[in-house]
Amino acid sequence: MKVKRIYGILFLILMIGAFSCQKADLQSVLQSISFNDQTLNLKVGDTQTLKPVFTPDSFSTLPVVWSTGDESVVTVSQTGIIYATSPGTTWVSVKDKNSATKGKLVIVVTN
User: Fold this and answer.
1) What average pLDDT does this structure show over 60-86?
2) pLDDT of the residue at 52
3) Percent of the chain with pLDDT over 70
4) Labelling 63: which of 10, 53, 100, 106 has CA 20 to 30 A away?
5) Which distant-in-sequence residues (6+ apart) come within 8 Å of 77 by Cβ?
6) Apex CA 84: angle with CA 57 and CA 108, to 5°?
7) How far from 16 is each of 20, 25, 80, CA to CA, in Å?
8) What's the whole-model pTM score?
9) Which residues pair with 64 in a beta bridge?
10) Does the CA dihedral 33-35-39-42 come out positive or negative?
């Protein structure tokens, strides 16, 4: 009888440990990268530093890669600084280096 009771207690301890680990793992996954606005309007010659929003925000120091859909309209540095070079519409995206999670922002440049 004592052996069954010990096995029962061990099983209970293992189950509690397993469920508490699962919850922590779910919180440690980058869920999304976004921007506060969907569109940014600039004039030719403007410079802007983009600040993406990470969910959860504990991922805000992740290494990211920046890109633009059309470098003739907007250039983007790897620190998120964009420069409006000519009129047009394009997008800028920021992607987590370690996953497929990314966010996009539409950029409209006018004279």
Assistant:
1) 97
2) 96
3) 90
4) 106
5) 66
6) 75
7) 6, 15, 43
8) 0.72
9) 96
10) negative
Pair of tokens at residue 100: 């497929």
Q: What type of residue is 80?
A: G
- CA-wise closest residue to 100 among 34, 32, 25, 54: 32
Token pair for 29: 């996954």
Residue 84: strand pairing partners: 74
CA 53 from centroid of its chain's CA atoms: 7
Question: Which single residue is written with the structure tokens 């370690």?
Answer: 98
What is the SS3 string spanning the chain?
A: CHHHHHHHHHHHHHHHHHHHHHHHHHHCCCCEEECCCCEEEEECCCEEECCCEEECHHHCCCCEEEEECCCCCEEECCCCEEEECCCEEEEEEEEECCCCCEEEEEEEEEC
Tokens 């047009």 identify what position? 88
How far apart CA 97 and CA 55 sit, in angstroms, is 15
In degrees and rounded to multiples of 5, residue 95 shows phi and psi of: -130, 140
Chain segment 26-63, per-residue pLDDT in tens: 568 899 999 999 999 999 999 999 999 999 999 999 89
